[in-house]
Structure formats: C-alpha cells, structure tokens
Amino acid sequence: MRLLCPALALLLVPLAQAEPLAPLPSTSQGEGYAVLIVSRERLEVATTCEVALYVHDQMAARLHQGQSVSFNLPPGRVSLRLGLTGTGPCQDGINQLAGQSLELQAGEVRRYRIAMGSDGLRLHAAPMLN
After folding, report:
1. Which DSSP letter does residue 31 get?
2. Which is it for strands 120-125 and 68-73: parallel, antiparallel or unpaired?
3. What's the pLDDT at 116?
4. Residue 83 CA to its chain's centroid (Å)
5. Which one in 50, 52, 101, 107 has a CA-CA gap of 20 to 30 Å to 90?
6. pLDDT grade, residue 6 (50/70/90)?
7. What is the pLDDT of residue 97?
8. Which string of DSSP letters, residue by residue, matches 102-117?
9. Core vs surface per residue 93-128: b (16+ CB within 10 A) or e
C-alpha cells in the first residue's frame, strides 16, 4: 500500500503538467435559426374562441387567451396567417387574415402579439420581455 500511493502520484504528474486542450468552437443550439414568439394577451382579442396560427399555410398552433407559442424557424421569408377555429360564433364576424410575411435573420428573436384590427386579426410587433 505504501508503494502504491507514491507510484500513483508519479503517474499523475505528467497529466498535471499537460497543456490544456483548445476550447471547442461555439455551437449554440439556436445557431442558424430564428425564434418567433407569438402571444395572445388576455385583453387584445375579446373572444373566447381559439385563434389558429398558420405558418406557410399549415396550422401550427391554437392559442387561447393568455397563451403564447414559440418556433425555431430557418432564416428567410415566413408567411403567417391567423383565423378563428371552432363552430358557431367562432366562425362568424371576424375575418381571417389574408396573410403577413416576415423576413427572419439567423440568431434573431422576434416577438409578436395577436390583436384585433378593423380588417380582422393581425400580428403586431411586441417588445421583448426582460
């Protein structure tokens, strides 16, 4: 046992003097993508109906009052559309959005809120929360 400890210590000396490894290049998880956050505030759209969010003409989310959703999207042009889902009063009275386009850059984060305008539901830019 007495011989084992000094022998082990001698083996560790070269490791302690080895040069540190070069740091790995940074590859953050979101690199090459943009983040789009869409929220439906409680008072912006005065309806209990779900609001459907379409990304590139495919339903991507259904939002109730107070909910938000986020997407990691590739950079470039993104087409968005809003509409109400459900039956009865959820289909009447509020026009579906004809469409909005955004140009997203890699690494950016954009936040939008759903609001009611004279032409129906719209996405409006919202400040980022700290």
Report:
1. T
2. unpaired
3. 83
4. 20
5. 101
6. low
7. 57
8. EEE-TT-EEEEEEEEE
9. ebeebeeeebebeeeeebbbbbeeeeeebebeebee
Rg (CA), the chain: 26
> Which domains are seen in the chain, by residue range?
30-125 (2.60.40.1120)
Lookup: tokens for 49: 């109906």
Cα end-to-end distance, the chain, whole Å: 58
54 pLDDT band, cuts 50/70/90, is: very high
Q: What is the pLDDT of residues 33-50, one digit of tens each?
A: 999 999 998 777 777 788
SS3 state at 77: strand
* 45 compared with 57, residue with greater pLDDT: 57
